[in-house]
Amino acid sequence: MSTETPGIDPLLALRAPRDPYCDVFLTGPVFLDIIFTGLDSAPVRGTESWARGMGSSPGGVANMATALARLGLHTSLAAAFGDDHYGEYCWDALEQGEGIDLSMSHTVPGWHSPVTVSMAYEGERTMVSHGHEAPPPTGTGAPGPAFPHCPPRARAAIASLAPERGEPWVATAARDGARIFADVGWDDSGRWDLDALPGLAHCEAFLPNAQEAMRYTRTDCPRAAAHALAERVPLAVVTLGAEGAYAVDGRTGASAQVPAIEVAALDPTGAGDVFVAGFVTGTLADWPLADRLAFAGLTAALSVQEFGGSLSAPGWTEVAAWWQRIRTLDDQDPAALERYAFLDDLLPTTPRAWPLRRAVPTIGFRQ
């Protein structure tokens, strides 16, 4: 069930008649995530462990697509879905539950959905996944243009860069005016060569974590790494874990750092995707750099207090409830609260009370 608060459109003041309807386009594999929480420790070999909590939800690229949609952005996803009950569930959860445009997606006959089982304990997670690469959509009856080399016109697109792997759609999207935001995974080759990331040349913003940034720039400080990356992309954002995030605008030389919000983490699954979604939202809305970092960090912090990737992505309702509640606590630093004062102009005046009750999707229930 979508958690978006009706009437909240972060881009409302910027929309014009000839703008593309799609705010953000993204593509990638969709997994069925099965998440176990409430484990006291890692599973022990030769024993059976019982979890106190469990949920199922679309995962993989669906984590970020859901996070974007819940923040009010018109989101288009190009993905392959399995021809099984898992795939049907993921499609319905994204299209009907979250309002995500799946006109660029397709179902592959005879192909089963990739599955990830995630176990959360001690603030960390352990995952086991299984799946096969989806065959190309030729002959599947997939709607729309060729998948995904002809993406729809969009304000922005999100890419996941990998060494020596070019994705033609990224250049096409950039040429059509989309602002490209990209993250990157661990380089198993050990080369850590920025020139081996073909899509980087098209990026508006590059958002690696601290370890990735330092290895790619041959630096020993995340902030130095961000400044080095800003020489290659207009905007470099380095996530610092418990220390928050640091960003450098390569066009102006401006930088900003915002500390992380301390929360009791239940499950970190998808927190990085939620951070990117929050930052993209603030960037498209033309907020100041520090506000974008603060909002991205806030949405990520809210997400780790719930289980699952797409399940935990907050919408404006959750943000409003947090902002209302945090100002009633006596031990809050006024200067820290001031960091989020920009929320006053964005949020509804009558948010729902905290704590919030969320729907917990489980495969098999019928209404």
Key traits:
single chain, 367 residues, alpha/beta, eight-stranded mixed β-sheet, four-stranded mixed β-sheet, 25% helix, 21% strand, disordered N terminus
SSE blueprint and pairings:
Layout: E1 22-27, E2 30-37, E3 53-60, H1 61-70, E4 75-78, E5 80-82, H2 85-98, E6 106-108, E7 115-121, E8 124-130, E9 154-161, H3 168-175, E10 179-184, E11 203-206, H4 210-217, H5 222-229, E12 235-239, E13 245-249, E14 255-258, H6 271-284, H7 289-303, H8 316-326, H9 334-338
Parallel strand pairs: 1-4, 1-9, 2-7, 5-6, 9-10, 10-11, 11-12
Antiparallel strand pairs: 2-3, 7-8, 12-13, 13-14
Helix pairs in contact: 1-6, 4-5, 6-7
| Count of helical regions | 9
Helix content: 25-40%
Biggest beta sheet summary: 8 strands, mixed
Mean pLDDT: 87
Instruction: Give the beta-strand count.
Output: 14
Q: From N to C, what is the helix and strand string?
A: EEEHEEHEEEEHEEHHEEEHHHH
Rg from Cα: 20 Å
Computed structural class: alpha/beta
Strand order of the largest sheet: 4-1-9-10-11-12-13-14
